[in-house]
Amino acid sequence: MQSLTEVSLLRSEFAEAMRRLSPDDADYVAQIVSLTLRQARRFRASDIHLTPHADSLVMQWRIDGVLHTVASFDRELGQRIVARTKVLAGLLTYRSDQPQEGRISDERGRPQSPGEETRVATFPTLYGERSAIRLFADTTVFRTIEDVGLPPETAQEVSAVLDETSGVVVFSGPSGSGKTTTACACLREMVRRHGSFRCLMTMEDPIEQAIDGATQTQVRPAAGLDLATGLKAMMRQDPDVIFVGEIRDASTAEQVFRAALTGHLVLTTFHAGSAAEAVVRLMELGIDPWLIRSTLRMLLCQRLVRRACDCRTTSNESENFSDCQNISAPAADLSGCADCGGTGYRGRFLLAERLPVSESWPTVECLQDTDVRTLHQTAAAHGMTTLADRARDAVQSGRTTREEIYRVLGKVLMPEPDSAAD
Fold this sequence. Notes:
It contains 14 helices and 15 strands. By secondary structure, the chain is an alpha/beta fold. It has two domains: 4-135, Beta-Lactamase, CATH 3.30.450.90; 145-413, Rossmann fold, CATH 3.40.50.
């Protein structure tokens, strides 16, 4: 639930800027779109949503993973704003009955520089076209493993596994948890360490970050080049390290683990809520437990949580941490400031859990016929610091709040006072 401070600061800043524009200008709509992109980047928004309703178009910004309503336009002006985003992205303005995707180019038609890359996706709805604008973060910010912000001991373990010559490294988590950012930082680290002595190739959909020193390919389903097919063909290009953008189906999963068996180090991302859930989901896709046991080098599950701004008072955050009954009632005072836009949070940081992979565990017998809860408990018993453990430490140190942990992890993953409950 958004606070009054949060709504008023974001909306008032944008409304004040809008008042400086003249509706009589010929490029009024272009100025609105330009203003929107500038202001959204200023407040560190990752996405802009332009959603049509019966008599209006509502604009929301996703800041640190949370949507905030910023402005509302009348229906006619809203349609012109969406049309302008399509022009900038080189989309067909006369087609409003089908989804379209494109990238915004600079004045000379070239791809935008790092920190400015913008993609536009439109989608037909009951009241007209909806436009979602993705504002990609500056890829120069998260270039190394240290930049990503993993816990120190986890960063060391990730760094060590990058020197392996074969096996599978899986980065898991829900959408928007920073999996690809972590994987790309690992690829850059390998380029830095080994240079041209190791051949790095990627198969992605889409290519989100350009990596100097790696050969990158984007899938083209219309041409018959999907992830599984592309990965199979890539094996004939003699790569040492392969990055598969995401395991989405059984055929891609099988190709990933088969590639690891033939002497390749494969990095990939996978949607799963926890490290244990990722293993169970891979088995549900048909990957045999023995194949997981013999090829898995590391499985890291991560989440991004908002960092409490200095304008918050967090003295009560550690009290009654496991009490979820009144979790919607703010436990911290929120005065709001210009730095955080009145949201009470500024930036995000990682929570991560690493599935322990050792000679003694996980055994094939342990993986067979197991469920997520049992596997999670077994992993914790073998030394896994869980997401719940990380969450408790983050709240008690004042880096974030109970409400934020509940928003990201939910009640199921809220830590108990004396044990790490899943």
